[in-house]
Design brief:
The structure is a single chain. By secondary structure, this protein is of the alpha+beta class. It has three domains: 40-130, Beta Complex (RNA Polymerase Alpha Subunit, Chain A, domain 2); 139-227, RNA Polymerase Alpha Subunit, Chain A, domain 2, CATH 2.170.120; 231-319, Beta Complex (RNA Polymerase Alpha Subunit, Chain A, domain 2). 18% of the residues lie in helices and 47% in strands. The chain is built from four helices and 25 strands. Strands 2, 5, 6, 8, 12, 13 and 16 form a seven-stranded mixed sheet that branches. Strands 10, 18, 20, 21, 23 and 24 form a six-stranded mixed sheet that branches. It has a four-stranded mixed sheet with strand order 4-1-3-7. The chain starts with a helix and ends with a strand.
Length: 321
Amino acid sequence: MINKIKSEILSFVKTKKINIFLLFLALAFIILLLTKLSKSYTNTFVFTINKIHVPEEEVILNDTSQVLEITLKTFGFNLLQYHFAKPEINIDFSKNIDKTDSAYVWNKNKAFATLHNQFNKNIELVNIVPDSLWFAYDVNAVKTVPVKLLSKISYSPGYNLTDAIEVTPDSVKIIGAKAILDTIDEIETDTVILNDVKQNIFKTTNLKFQKFDKDVKFSVKKVSFKAKVEKYTEGTLPVTVQIINVPIGIKLKYFPKVVNVSYYTSLANFNTITAQDFRVVCDYSKMVKGQTSLVPELEKKPETVKYFKIKQEFVEFIITE
């Protein structure tokens, strides 16, 4: 028992010593870091360009190669922010910039004061490369493009759409450089995933505008879509077969004269559908020489019918005259 107590005391003392050692080690590291950061350094950073106050009637053509390499001299504390975040500098298109017929021209000597004001007063700008930047621009154009709904929708057994999905708005106005707008023919939505649907649909979804040039503006960023979903059922009706395009002087006998047509429609419309709403034909002009059968085709069906099938692959015939 005594030996166990001694062991626990020694273990506690050792742990305390280790903790004190780690504490002093951490303090030493912090002091060293503060010493380093309090010294003056000169470093060069690559700054991406943030274009501000661009006239609304114009658009700057995107060029990712446009950057400024700026050499800064200051204490280490002030440089930390440029190591942990991507450096960005504003270029104001409303002042200290020249304009030609095809481009804006930024010159570091002309815009130095505006540039320097974006930095801490303790930071010295040692050098800026390049001396000038050219920003090609174009006059804004307006174009209307259709919206394409991307969807993966599955329905509960026995349920389906009654009409096509309606998207609002079904087209979007886009504003930007004509050269860019000429490449855009439609705009897609985020993919909508709906499972086991058995009720009417009314949802909103975002447009995929992020993949386009950031200077292209869109009239809306979201669209809504709706659709009527109903319970569906299958029906079968006997429909008379008609032979069409038979040459003058030829008479036919064919069998069967009536075929069964199965169809899929909403429960609400089921009782409104009759055999007269369908028309099944066999086109004699499509007959291959020596053939004694024709393929029945559904030439007419009700708009309320979604799917159909003629339960007779061939209609046999003979020429009687």
